[in-house]
Amino acid sequence: MRNWLGILAIGAALLGGGSVARADDPVFNLTIQNHKFSPEVLEVPAGVKIKLLVKNLDATPEEFESNELHREKVVPAGQEVPIFIGPLEAGTYPFFGDFNPKTAQGKIVAK
Amino acid sequence: MGGKYVIMIGIAFITFREVLEAALVVTLVLAASKGTPRRGRWVAGGVACGIAGASIVAALAAEISALLEGVGQEVFNACVLFIAVAMLSWHNIWMGRHGKEMAAEAARLGSQVLSGGRPLYALSIAVGIAVLREGSELVLFLDGLVAAGNGADLGPGMLLGLVCGIALGGVIYFGLLRIPTRHLFRVTGWMILLLAAGMAAQGAAFLTQADYLPALGNRLWDTSAILSENSIPGQILHVLVGYVAQPSGIQLVFYAATILVVGILMRIFGNAGPTVSRAATAALLFWAGAATLHPARADFQVRSPTVEYQEIEFEHNGDTTFDRRNSGMSNDQSYTFSIGYGVTPWWKTELEAETAAPPGENLKFDATTWENTFQITETGEYWADLGFFFEYSHAHQHGDPESVTFGPLVQKEIGSTLHTFNFLLDKDMGSGASDGTGLELAWQSLWRINQYASPGIEYYGEIDDLGHPGKLSQQQHRVGPVVVGAVAFPPNGKIKYEVGYLFGLTNATERGAVRWKFEYEAHF
What we know:
Strand order of the largest sheet of chain A: 3-9-8-5-6
CATH architecture of chain A: Sandwich
Number of helices of chain B: 10
Structural class of chain A: mainly beta
Number of strands of chain A: 9
Strand order of the largest sheet of chain B: 1-2-3-4-5-6-7-8-9-10-11-12
Helix content of chain B: 40-55%
Oligomer: heterodimer
CATH class of chain A: Mainly Beta
Radius of gyration of chain B: 27 Å
Largest sheet of chain A: 5 strands, mixed
Order of helices and strands of chain A: HEEEEEEEEE
Number of strands of chain B: 12
Number of domains of chain B: 2
Structural class of chain B: alpha+beta
Radius of gyration of chain A: 17 Å
Largest sheet of chain B: 12 strands, antiparallel, barrel
Shape of chain A: globular
């Protein structure tokens, strides 16, 4: 039993320690207003972990979703949530608002 | 003169189609109830009530349509169809219970006459509903023709259509009768199940039209080029198996759900499983003692540490094993159904019903489980994503212990691959509890090349008691390929699936197992 606990402890340490210090992650802002994203095209550096701050200015919740980025996260009305993506290879990664897919569309371009 | 002839043929064809749909249901019911005395009376009564009902419905068509803000017609049709589904399902479940007795009795008596008792009223209601639906559609259509001034031509066309529809139904009936009695119940049981599933899908389509249900994708595929629903074979398939050339997502969900739920209820309430020989029983007890310390087997599923806030999900997990006959490890089945909800952005809770059929036994309701997933780190923020899982399981089978299972869930994304690892401890409690703490390991690596279907590899391991892990050959370890995918219908949610095959790696593990997961999730 002791051996297993030891392995768990090492695992937890690895998870916490193995990352880049959070202060270094570049931050990009995305706004949701009138069921549309702004900006609709967001340029980010490739090969680096990115912190997206998505702020929902509408009165209804929206869900930031992207199959290419493998993320789906609800952004409640009036709130700002962080979404970590990357490191991304150079390319275009479309995203959309799952609750208003017709109007909420955008893409992230990694260069 | 030629014009009138064409109109008559048109009327005949429409009448034929509607009559055929009702006739197929009558045919199937008659074949399924062959040998039961007075069934003819019940079916005829159903038909008569259906015809009377059809006239009433047609007369009140305008009023019904105006109900519920204009969608009364659709809701009425859907309700009536779901009642028919319930009647047909009830009949099938009843047959599952008593079918073997009846077939045995028929063989013993050497005659075709069987004792009554089967719920003929259920079949009668289903027949009545089929006739009512088709009849009311037909009456409305014909009324429209009369109003348009073509009344004089109704008679001959209707008669022709009626005769042809009943004739074709009769041909199919006598075809079904050629099946030997011992197989007839099973075959018609399946056909009735598919008939019910098709009706459930039809009901779902009406509710979509009424805007009570989301379509989940209007046209998942289009096979009208191969077989049009308007053709005669297409029409027959439409009634018998629920064939739809352009199905919507919700129709597929209702179709599959009806087959799954009714099929499993038929098994649970079904009678006598396969007889087990004495040698097999002995082998069973030996393996039960050697390989497992507690009756419940681990699910084959890899859990993710990610919680989706305000998302409701309906999930079904199933698996079945394959091994040499009489090893006591073959045909070990498990089916679970759960409803889950993301209560906060970091806590998802689920209630699950577990049913299982150990080798040689019937399907039983094993346990009710309360599962909780806690997302501890923000996805992608650290080197890996961490979550915590905790479940409490209440056993329903007499003598089975309660149990808790808990442990970390870890997930890491590397480029386009996703790796998930579960390390869960489980402990029995209460009466029948074994002393040790068990370990359940699960691992999945996916190569996410396509959102609809991505390949991967999985591993599952089980050690019954960490305090006495025993030799590797006494533990259960499995590995195998898996396909994972999802189909989304924004903003109406998505359907996710996983299907895999697992190869047993040790002596205490079955040779092979198939496992699957189907899930519908949506924002709520």
